[in-house]
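Worked Example 4.2. Read the sequence first, then its structure tokens.
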Amino acid sequence: MPMWKPMLYGVAFLHTTVQERRKFGPIGWNIPYEFNQGDLNATIQFIQNHLDDLDLKRGVNWVTVRYMIGEVQYGGRVTDDYDKRLLNTYTRVWFSENMFSDSFQFYTGYKIPKCKTLEEYRSYIESLPLVDSPECFGLHPNADITYQTNTANKMLSTIVNIQPKDAGSGGGDTRETVVYRLAEDMLEKLPADYKPHEVKEKLKKMGILQPLNIFLRQEIDRMQRVISLVRSTLVDLKLAIDGTIIMSENLRDTLDNMYDARVPNNWRK
């Protein structure tokens, strides 16, 4: 059938698109679905069966094709309404009589090639850009910024996490020494605790029931909790490094994060 190759290429392109959109996180799909080779194989099998039973006078039944791809084969995995709409839009725009015309393009520069052999198809696919623009998946170019930022952050945090944690033999300062000095420095710079009676007196002068001052009072309470937590953690960390108290899981996490110049998890909470 002359329709077989363009439709097969169309299904393959759709498969790559639904896969690639996952890397953009919630911008690509609201829920990351596990589209896999089984979905592609089932769709190809359906297209093959449909064309085998085709009445040439009537042509391809596009309503059936779109329903099977958008609602059953790929759509069967999709649970979110907006994701379903997106998938059905892809099938509606790409799967029609229009896909057999020379002017048809998935996106600028991405068309269905007219080839005779598998090698020709392969060489055409090899000639496509190595890095795809988000626009060919129907996304804004800015989607790439988020993806690349996330990838870089993930890679850097992995590199930091797999660094050796024990003391080096290079003769330099050990991790514990570095963190101990850092803890002392931070304790010196840490502001003093708020004195409740002083805070109350000053707020009374400013007008304790004014909306902005109520908000200020809440902020002071929160800041006090942060200051107290940071101070107690740093004091305990120094004692743990000296060996006076046991190094707990929280203190170990604080030590690792401070050495890597990151905010410890319990502070961030």
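Now turn to a second chain, presented in exactly the same format:
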Amino acid sequence: SHILKKDQDSTKAWKGKTEQLLKIDEHDFTMRPAFGGPPIPVGVNGQVESLDRISEVDMDFTMTLYLRHYWKDERLSFPSTNNESRTFDSRLVKMIWVPDVFFVHSKSSFIHATTTDNIMLRVFPDGNVLYSMRVTVTAKCNMDFSRFPLDSQTCSLELESYAYTDEDLMLYWKNGNASLKTDDKISLSQFLIQKFHTTSRLAFYSSTGWYNRLYINFTLRRHIFFFLLQTYFPAILMVMLSWVSFWIDRRAVPARVSLGITTVLTMSTIITGVNASMPRVSYIKAVDIYLWVSFVFVFLSVLEYAAVNYLTTVQERKERKLREK
């Protein structure tokens, strides 16, 4: 009988070892490229994926963005006949030198890790490197509420090297004003995003020196319609309702007193509700002026009835005395 032999599985039979593409074992990557020489230029660009949250109480914002770094490290160069780049994941990032960029004034930040670390490293044959990550950061934003709710806020996300001064690392926007891209679908419930733009300057620390700092600036303008429905219209109605007591007979004491107290308490509730959603600032906001003026009108309507009741009581007393005489 003819015995059929199975073909040998080539994947199991291959026992050779491919030649290592990057000679990372031959160099000390604890030192930056061109250590001891001129500063290494590191270009930065990014794409804002979303603005997740703007908090007036905490005075901060949360942003998710793709952050990309560009630099040249000749220690990572490799021979190539077609001049094509090679792409690696986060495992190689832990073995080579990467810029130590951090977010200034950030409260918390993290690199997304589902389903794996959202990190990409692309190396070109001449040693140029592209390092990209997807990160979410919560940073503080100093807000001015003096014109609230007709205010506009400008917030900044600041990037800077933690260890390397401008003598070792030159951080810059790779494409100038075109270095920052935004998703067209970015929207917020209470704000209209007017514009994004980038700036840069030097930051000085007395103990360590000068550092290059990059800024992602964005301007927000608040939508007024929500506050018209929740604050301004109710306040207008309460003031008008307090005027109804002027047409109620002054002898109907329970009706006028209950109406006046109800409008006063309602205005107090509106003021408390607005201030509960705002930080405890030491200056007066525009909405405070409007609400307190409305509160004064409502309160004066209660005082008006008290004054009318008192004056009419005095007048009736005088008339009674005249009749008795």
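Notes for the reader: Residues 226-324 form a domain with the Methane Monooxygenase Hydroxylase; Chain G, domain 1 fold (CATH 1.20.58.390). Residues 112 and 118 are 6 Å apart (CA to CA).
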